[in-house]
Structures are given as structure tokens and as C-alpha cells.
Amino acid sequence: MITRRHLLAGLAGISVSGFVAGAAGALEFIDYTGTELEGLVDSGAPYLINFHASWCPTCAAQQRVLDALQGESAAYAAIPILRVDWDSYGNSELARNMAIPRRSTLVLMRGTSELGRLVAETRKDRIAGLLDLAAS
Questions:
Q1: What is the model's pLDDT at position 82?
Q2: Distance between CA atoms of residues 104 and 57, nearest Å
């Protein structure tokens, strides 16, 4: 079980204020920097943590699927996506506390509770299924 203290300690570098709506209405991703995550955790709203690497073809495929899903559904577009660079933070306290095995890991959270995760999954139906857990 991930405790609130562990999650906040690991996520302290993510800035919620960095999220802005893009031209198409989808959220733009931010780097793992900043200090305002506690508000997101406390909001009770679901959010997706995307552990990625810029050179990773699986990560790029996941990104294309997430972009498509956000374009198709306002509910999906409303889920904030926190993108954590694997090369910089793959061995961070956040990755260790969450037992992230590798890049291309998607973790859906609500507060400090994990709702579900996918590792190296690129199928649209599986990623949509993960995002659908946000409604439950």
C-alpha cells in the first residue's frame, strides 16, 4: 500500500500549475518539476501518471493512443496526465515507492490510491479500460 507520505514525497517534484489546455483542448504534459501536487492528491479526482522516455517507441505509441482517446472523449481529456521522464526519474523515490518496473508504465490514481496500471500496453481498448476506472 502506498501511503500518503510516500506518494507526496515521491511526487513533490510535479507541478499541477503547469497543466494548461492545449489548442485542441487536450492537456499538455509537464515535466516532473514543481511543488503543487498535494492539491491534486487532495482533490479526490483521478489522474494518470505516465512514466515515459523520449526515445521509447512503446511510450510514443502510448502517447498516440492517449492523444486519440482525449480527442474522442471529454471525460478522458479531463483526466490530468503527469508525465515522468524515465531517464531522469526512473530510479527516483517516486518510482521506487510505486514499484514502477520500467518506462511505458501508466498508473491511474485517485488521491494516494492506485486504481490500476498498465505496463508496456499500447492497445487502445486496454488504455481506454484503464481510463474508464476513473469513473468508478
A1: 86
A2: 9
Q: Find residue 51's DSSP bridge partners.
A: 84, 105
* pLDDT for res 108: 95
Residues 6+ apart with CB under 8 A from 107: 48, 49, 51, 98, 100, 114, 116, 117
Is residue 131 within a helix (H) or strand (E), and if so which, with residue range?
A: helix 124-132
> In the structure, what pLDDT confidence band is assigned to residue 18 with cuts at 50, 70 and 90?
very low
pLDDT surpasses 50 at 79: yes
Pairing of strands 113-119, 105-110: antiparallel
8 Å CB contact between 95 and 119 = no
Long-range contacts of 31-38 (CB under 8 A, 24+ apart): 31/83, 31/85, 32/82, 32/83, 32/84, 32/85, 32/88, 32/89, 32/94, 37/8, 37/11, 37/12, 37/82, 38/8
